[in-house]
Amino acid sequence: MSFRRALALAACGLAGGSVLFSAVAVSKQPARGGDAEPRPGSSPSAVPPASAAPPGLLLLPPAAAAAASCPAAPGWIERPAGTGGYWDSNWDRREPLALINLKKKNEETGEEELASRLDHCKAKATRHIFLIRHSQYNLDGRADKDRTLTPLGREQAELTGHRLASLGLKFDQIIHSSMTRATETTEIISKHLPGVKKISTDLLREGAPIEPDPPVSHWKPEAVQYYEDGARIEAAFRNFIHRADAKQEEDSYEIFVCHANVIRYIVCRALQFPPEGWLRMSLNNGSITHLVIRPNGRVALRTLGDTGFMPPDKITRT
Questions:
Q1: From residue 181, how far is each of 65, 154, 178, 206, 289 by CA, in Å?
Q2: pTM for the model
Q3: Phi and psi of 102, rounded to 5°?
């Protein structure tokens, strides 16, 4: 790695501090104790201050850090300011304090009223989101209506439906993409979950959510596709992935049958990982991804692309 490249990487990874350290080796200095005196003929300033860089690291002044270039984040994705590791507790815009109008606070009973209103806006239930990728389908179909499930794909959907039913959960609804392969997968799964209502939506249709980083050579849609599909898939995320409504009293279990790109993007956004990394994950046909959203807005990923319930010879990723 070149010296200039190392400096740029250090600046990107630790931007925001008053000084930055880059893991660039420098010549070793003789060890000296805390009470060591300067060598004869040297000035007192030659003694490194207490805040100097550790041995083997190069100290960069703020000016050098600012000069290093970092890739800019896409402007249409909301990003919290600060360094990595920051969790935005109001990621779904449903924090109680964000749901009330503080200007309407009663001046006489302000604190008491505010506490009551905040409590009224707090979520009480946990949402369990099961994201199901559609089963194997006919890749030769020209139009969506021709891309029906293959015989193996129908078997996969049966296995997924059986697995969901075996969990013994009271599922509230199945929301599915309006594309043929997702609709057919839903119909087969729903046979194992009688009485669970089905809802079709165009928001969950397959598409190009955001340009992946690092880029890939085998899949390069037109820029306009990212622009159009990205907004729709982001809308699906904001519409369906959030903490429970304050009126919801019991935990809910919801199934979403859609597509690999959509699921991978949703996972990245829900966990507040860089959404550009969605293509680094791979999902099998008929797989189950389980997200949990707590009342306080915390999100956990229970499973990602689980197909352990399928025999090895039934597993595909087409």
A1: 50, 10, 9, 11, 18
A2: 0.73
A3: -65, -20
